TrEMBL record, chain B:
The lineage of its organism: Bacteria, Bacillati, Actinomycetota, Actinomycetes, Streptosporangiales. This is PadR family transcriptional regulator. InterPro entries: Tscrpt_reg_PadR_C, Tscrpt_reg_PadR_N, WH-like_DNA-bd_sf, WH_DNA-bd_sf. Residues 7-80 form the Transcription regulator PadR N-terminal domain. PANTHER family: NEGATIVE TRANSCRIPTION REGULATOR PADR, TRANSCRIPTIONAL REGULATOR YQJI.
Length: 247, 178
């Protein structure tokens, strides 16, 4: 499917993980109605690593993803994204760090239908204040990396489900964002579309991105370097492929 | 698993020596089921006894005294029947994991959740290894080998789902443990 041009490796900062979560607790609500979504979870995702998170619904998977990308703040514990402790940041600084460092891919509703694929992908960079021509050039480059070089001028509705998700991955990564957070990105796709997406996620990790993938599909989780099992807000297990060891 | 029919299928392509059968069997199943040469010759002598293969007269013996075997007409009929007939689930070997979990649930003092967790990690690890193996197969790989790896991936995936299911069923609050 996609061409296999060896992508440029993004710089890895001295082995420091792109995101490091330590003893993270997230409680929704208060008192007797309090829900413990996460209970002391620690997790690192390094550059070049694909980590899959599995677990039954309500186990805290999406909360974990939101915290890793700075969309939510922990009740207790520490989240360090690209070397910055999120607790110490003002809402404005947090929003900026989030925009520069993390990209999201959801199951659905990723793209704006009235913009072309290239415009969708360039949009986050334009919001960063990058000039249109440069944002478009960056969009073209990242679209090529996900195998959509020829489809930039199409509208999302003209693409297959798998192509739309690849465009969403491109948008999540544009502008050298190194953390890719994917919440059930294969959920709305058939087997072939799902296979395309997991291959692109794997390639992006191999090219130096840190990828955190929430999935309930064991077959896709198996592409990860590490699989973390969550249950009732706790990490109950983790399985590393090959020689790498789980932290 | 039918080594017998596997060998008949290979012999239907032409007469072969035992060592060739072993190599081809392993190649076409992506070395999933290693065969020892003794198994090959035992199976061949049973097939010969049943009239499904015969010693190949034209080929005779090679310099090491090894015998070449050929499929008979009866052998071809048997092979056709095998391909035509679906494999019955009851013919497959018992699943140790299923027995183990059933025993774990009913044996006092066994932490079933721990049994499930340990198995799930192990199964995921083999699923990761199989996926890695599949990724390294290049486009020129025989379809048969690819399909064998796919099959193992699907089985591991099914086992993983079943373990999740077991965990969910056992986690349901019961009357004494609301």
């Amino acid at each position: 499917m996609t061409e296999t041009r060896p992508p440029d490796r993004l710089p890895a900062p001295d082995g420091e993980p792109v995101v490091r979560m330590t003893g993270v607790v997230r409680v929704h609500g208060e008192g007797t109605g309090a829900v413990h979504a996460l209970r002391r979870v620690s997790l690192d995702v390094a550059a070049g690593e694909l980590v899959a998170v599995m677990g039954p619904s309500g186990s805290g998977k999406s909360t974990l993803l939101n915290l890793a990308g700075g969309l939510d703040r922990p009740t207790e514990g520490s989240v360090v994204l690209e070397g910055r402790e999120l607790r110490d940041l003002s809402p404005k600084q947090l929003a900026e760090l989030r925009r520069r460092s993390a990209g999201y891919v959801f199951q659905d509703l990723n793209l704006i239908p009235s913009l072309t694929v290239a415009e969708n992908v360039a949009l986050p960079r334009e919001l960063d204040g990058v000039r249109t021509a440069r944002a478009r050039a960056e969009a073209t480059a990242v679209l090529e990396e996900v195998g959509l070089a020829d489809l930039g001028d199409r509208f999302p509705d003209d693409l297959s489900g798998g192509q739309r998700q690849r465009a969403a991955i491109a948008r999540a990564l544009v502008g050298r964002r190194r953390l890719l957070l994917a919440d059930e990105p294969t959920g709305a796709l058939d087997t072939r579309g799902g296979d395309e997406i997991i291959q692109v996620l794997r390639q992006r990790a191999d090219a130096g991105a840190a990828v955190l993938l929430v999935t309930h599909e064991p077959r896709y989780a198996a592409w990860a370097d590490r699989v973390v099992f969550l249950k009732d807000g706790r990490v109950v297990d983790s399985s590393a492929a090959g020689m790498e060891t789980a932290r | 698993m039918s080594v017998r029919h596997g060998l008949l299928a290979l012999l239907s392509r032409g007469p072969r020596y035992g060592y060739q059968l072993r190599a081809e069997f392993e190649a076409s199943t992506a070395t999933t089921w290693p065969l020892n040469i003794g198994q090959v010759y035992t199976t061949l002598s049973r097939l010969e006894r049943d009239g499904l293969v015969s010693r190949d007269d034209q080929g005779g013996q090679d310099e090491q005294g090894r015998v070449r075997y050929a499929i008979t007409a009866e052998g071809r009929d048997e092979l056709d029947r095998w391909f035509a007939k679906p494999v019955s689930r009851a013919d497959r070997p018992r699943n140790e994991l299923v027995i183990k979990l059933a025993m774990a649930v009913t044996t006092p003092g066994v932490d079933v959740a721990a049994v499930i967790r340990a198995q799930r990690s192990a199964t995921m690890r083999s699923l990761q290894e199989l996926t890695r193996a599949l990724r390294t197969l290049d486009a020129s790989t025989e379809a048969a080998q690819r399909l064998v790896v796919d099959s193992m991936i699907f089985h591991a995936e099914a086992e993983q789902r079943w373990l999740d299911h077991c965990e969910a069923v056992l986690a349901r609050p019961s009357e004494e443990n609301p």
